[in-house]
Structure formats: structure tokens, C-alpha cells
Structure to design on (306 residues):
DNA sequence: CCGATCAAGTTACAATTGTAACCATTGATT
DNA sequence: AATCAATGGTTACAATTGTAACTTGATCGG
């Protein structure tokens, strides 16, 4: 087979490798909360951010999870309709809305956290501890890239 | 702030880290071929797979790049309409279609490959060689996970 | 105080995507 | 041969998403 051009080896191309990995892993995890709670990815992410960090604005959720603001807006709307979060206007700056989980939201969150921990340990149990530390080191390196955070999505 | 539940630390949760990384890097790279060639992600991926591997069926592209078959179907259709690939039926099994880049398709591919190499070396230039090797080692570890390939998307 | 400008968040609309149903073809079974 | 299940690939339709425009409110310079 004659190829008169230098090919790109996809298996060595970072965006390709990352998105292939991310898609299969995220999809796998999504099956859990999709089936059991009827949630989608933006909803789960917003819930997770609020559960971990307590009280946030939509913009802060955007920045933290690197999601487009319309995604966040819709996720927040949906979580609020389910009664899982409360919105509270800032009195000083009435454009800003603080978001916080309700007790019901916290209960859902707790259940999903259990799922997440289980999922993570299933994955980690297939790695040796040195492999695990390599993976963590690599992720930290990649997360330092200036690319991250530059995008408004 | 009283949180009466054990939180999940998103910054340590693999699906979260991977998708945040993947989305920002892929988006960054996508800007190039989107602006210059009006291509979307599935189109670029199909082109890249064909450019590298020569002649493939749609199903093979699905497996290789972990994309849903409808995505691939549409990407192939679009590439074919631009005259960048040719479809050829298998005579033995007339369900199967072999796909192959045309000379014009190969020219586009070559240009995009140059972009890709440049993109990759920009990223790699910000890492030391030991960091780079850590990243590659980690990606190989993650790619061995049995999760990959289990999904039909 | 008034207009200009900018930020937070929403929404309308178009494009992209996933699910499920569908053809067309093949292979296996009877 | 006739039927049935399985496979490669497409398509209709609904859900999800991104872009751009918008609303509301704050700020800043005159």
C-alpha cells in the first residue's frame, strides 16, 4: 500500500488519546446515574461541585468544571425543579445567584458519591500502586497546561 | 460551613479530570480545523483514521476511534460529498463498504497532519522530557483498562 | 444624572447528537 | 428453498448542545 504522505499516528496524538479515554470512562460512569437517577452529565457535575464546595454561583460552576454557561444554566434549572438546590440572590449585587443543595439534594449527592468512590476504586484496583502514582502524576502535569481555563467553552 | 456528609473530591475523580482535560484540549485543537476547513470532530477523526490506516470500513472507524456509528455514518457521508473519500462495495459481502481517501482527501489530510504535529509539539514543548514520558506511560496504563472498547457508544 | 459598557444569567434558534427503528444482505437452520 | 437471526450501515425523531442575542443589574466617566 503506497502512501505518499507522512501519516499522523493517532495512537500518539494527545487530543485523540484523551478524548477516546474520557469518552469511554465518562460514558461508563454516566450509565450509573443516568439509569438510577435520570440525571445527565451537566446535572451530575453541577450537583457534584455544589456538594463538594458548598455554595457557588453558576459562573463558579462553569469555571470549576469547564462547562459552557448554558449547560450550567439548564442543569441548575433542572436541579432546582427537582428541589435539590436553592437559589438565593445576592443583596449587594442582584445579578448574582448563590446556589446551595437542599437536604434532599444532599441525600442524592451522598448516594452518588458512594457510587463514584466505588467506581474509582474498581478502576484503581486494576492498577498497581506505582501505576496509580504515574497516572496521578501525569494528570497533574496535564492539568498545569495553560490550555486549561483559557476556554469559555 | 457544616457539611454533614463525606464529599467527593472532584479534583481526584478520574472521569472528571479526564473529561475536563479532554474537552479543553480537543476544543482548542478543533478551533484550527473548524475555522480553516469547516470540519467537525467526527469528520476530522474519520479523515485521520483513513489517512493513517489506508482503507477501512465504517465499523472499523467506529472501533478505532470509539465513535457512535451514526456519527461515523454522517461524517463519511459528508467527506464523500466533498469528494475527499471514495466508497467501494465489497463484492463478496455487499453490506460492506470500503472507504478510502481520494487524492484531494489526502491533500487535506496532509495539511491537517501538519497542524496536528505543530499542536502536539507546542504542548510537548512546555514539558520536560521526563514529564512527557510520565504522561505517555500514564496514557498507556489507562488505555489498557478493560473499560475501553466495551462501549458501543 | 445619563449614557456607555460590562457582567451574570437566560433564552431562541440552529446544529449536533443518541436512541431506536429500519433496510439490505448474509449465514445458519430447518 | 423458506425462515430466522445477525451484521453493516442509514435514517427519523427526540434530546442535547453551542452560538448569538437578549434581559437585568452594576459601574464608570463625563
Amino acid at each position: 500500500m503506497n502512501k505518499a504522505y507522512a501519516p499522523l499516528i493517532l495512537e500518539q496524538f494527545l487530543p485523540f488519546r484523551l478524548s477516546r479515554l474520557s469518552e469511554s470512562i465518562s460514558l461508563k460512569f454516566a450509565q450509573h446515574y443516568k439509569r438510577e437517577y435520570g440525571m445527565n452529565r451537566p446535572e451530575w457535575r453541577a450537583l457534584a461541585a455544589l456538594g463538594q464546595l458548598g455554595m457557588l454561583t453558576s459562573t463558579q460552576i462553569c469555571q470549576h468544571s469547564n462547562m459552557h454557561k448554558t449547560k450550567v444554566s439548564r442543569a441548575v434549572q433542572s436541579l432546582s425543579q427537582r428541589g435539590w438546590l436553592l437559589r438565593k440572590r445576592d443583596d449587594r449585587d442582584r445579578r448574582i445567584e448563590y446556589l446551595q443543595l437542599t437536604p434532599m439534594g444532599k441525600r442524592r449527592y451522598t448516594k452518588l458519591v458512594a457510587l463514584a468512590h466505588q467506581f474509582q476504586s474498581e478502576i484503581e484496583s486494576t492498577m498497581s500502586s506505582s501505576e496509580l502514582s504515574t497516572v496521578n502524576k501525569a494528570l497533574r502535569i496535564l492539568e498545569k497546561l495553560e490550555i486549561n481555563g483559557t476556554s469559555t467553552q
Q: What stands out?
A: Residues 57-59, 69-70, 72-74, 76-77, 93, 95-97 of chain A lie near DNA strand C (CB under 10 Å from a C1').
